[in-house]
Amino acid sequence: MSNKKPLSIIKIGGNIIDDATELANFLADFSKIDGNKILVHGGGKSATKMAKSIGLVPQMIEGRRITDQPMLDVVVMIYAGEINKNIVAQLQANNTNAMGFSGADGNLIQSTKRNHPTIDYGFVGDVKKINTPLLQTLISNGIVPVFCAITHDKNGQLLNTNADTIASELAIAASEVFEVTLNYCFEKAGVLTDVEDENSVIQQINSELYAQLKKEGAIHSGMIPKLDNCFNSLSKGVQKIRIGHHKMLKDNNAICTSIEL
Amino acid sequence: MSNKKPLSIIKIGGNIIDDATELANFLADFSKIDGNKILVHGGGKSATKMAKSIGLVPQMIEGRRITDQPMLDVVVMIYAGEINKNIVAQLQANNTNAMGFSGADGNLIQSTKRNHPTIDYGFVGDVKKINTPLLQTLISNGIVPVFCAITHDKNGQLLNTNADTIASELAIAASEVFEVTLNYCFEKAGVLTDVEDENSVIQQINSELYAQLKKEGAIHSGMIPKLDNCFNSLSKGVQKIRIGHHKMLKDNNAICTSIEL
């Protein structure tokens, strides 16, 4: 038996953030989760909406969105400003002592500007290092960290960073000192073998079954990098990962996908 | 002799924030200040610029700016997002372990929506309570808090709040546990008896001289609420207040206005 204390890391995306009622319900449920916890949130549609309203045209190269300087300014103000602070204020109203962070705050998440051989992604960061001792200090003081998807390079540059990756990197780093359960909340009940059928949730998946389902083509292409990422996190010390609708957080009997090695 | 540890609180406004070179110089100097410190920053012109670019018309009642919901969204994203996170990232590059906060984060600054008999200021907050124990915990862990001028009411509402007031309320609260020096940095060398003459700095002012200068009309009208606020802070435990150009922070011989009871 591990004598590490449990820590729940929950990642939410646009489907929750873009719907005020859904977000309020989620935050009320999140507040009721016992013990140590961290929230990681993605962006949602408001950054795109803001970018359009100030006349920015999305920069795409080979189908990938590029974060140029004006777009970086927008994501920083929306993710770290509007979304993060509204979530923190609502959690405080639910008596959860939330504190909102970008990776620059307390140097909690340092990243490196992506260096791709053919595509210049602009101001996009790949996570390099988590400040685990400070994270542990905050948590042991009753703080509930709320991370947005912005990091920094420790040379003064903020960087747009994938929220799923932030959640998994936090989970891996925190697993040194906590027994970590990582929860990815999205609009579906879990990983489906048939995207059209909500009843086709794979309730348990391990590396063996994953290899088999990939071979059979039963796992949806967009789900493959997500699951690869999950198995990578598990191999690096994360105890358990769940993917599903956020009702899995309050209802232990809710159907979702549990992932183990 | 007090056995409290010293704490410097520094407030900067738009004149520094709006000028990238000036801001970089200030942040490099700020990083060199020894010991415990807190930075409080105002807004600058970018909130007004953003408001205009998305088509907002400033709401004014009796000459006072009103923070309606769309304007609140703008100040939250600019102050707590763009400005705060860029300052934090630059301080981290200067090896200062900065952490950026609104008042909602960690419930550090709780305020009350202003209730004025004749003017509805909108989402404007007056500071009610500082979470001094948490502030002390953060500082004792080597964190340099960086506050933007946004607070919350603990019921989920973010509120636009005067940065000078945030600085003075933090100074008063922190003076319970620290020996606090509060520094207001602005574009002038100090409080001037002649606004047109930079050489007319009042280098020392106490409550007696202040009463006399007000009587003589030598103190500029806009300076009166600022100085009233200073004397109030001093009467509530703040050790020392200085007003002047930020060069006073690195050069002990720089001319500035020192205020004592």
UniProtKB/TrEMBL annotation, chains A, B:
Subcellular location: Cytoplasm
Key words, A-Z: Amino-acid biosynthesis, Arginine biosynthesis, ATP-binding, Cytoplasm, Kinase, Nucleotide-binding, Transferase
Main location: cytoplasm
Catalytic activity of the protein: N-acetyl-L-glutamate + ATP = N-acetyl-L-glutamyl 5-phosphate + ADP
InterPro entries named among the record's database cross-references: AceGlu_kinase-like_sf (IPR036393), AcgluKinase_fam (IPR004662), ArgB (IPR037528), Asp/Glu/Uridylate_kinase (IPR001048)
E.C. designation(s): 2.7.2.8
Site (Transition state stabilizer): 11, 226
A GO biological-process term: L-arginine biosynthetic process via ornithine
Ranges where the Aspartate/glutamate/uridylate kinase domain occurs: 9-244
GO molecular function, one term: acetylglutamate kinase activity
Annotated residues for binding of substrate: 43-44, 65, 160
TM regions (residue ranges): none
GO CC, alphabetical: cytoplasm
Superkingdom classification of source: Bacteria
Pathway(s) this gene product operates in, as recorded in its UniProt entry: Amino-acid biosynthesis; L-arginine biosynthesis; N(2)-acetyl-L-ornithine from L-glutamate: step 2/4
Pfam short name (any one): AA_kinase
Sequence similarity: Belongs to the acetylglutamate kinase family. ArgB subfamily.
PANTHER family cross-referenced by the UniProt entry: N-ACETYLGLUTAMATE SYNTHASE, N-ACETYLGLUTAMATE SYNTHASE, MITOCHONDRIAL
Described function: Catalyzes the ATP-dependent phosphorylation of N-acetyl-L-glutamate.
NCBIfam families: argB
Entry protein name: Acetylglutamate kinase
Organism field: Flavobacterium cellulosilyticum
Gene behind the chain: argB
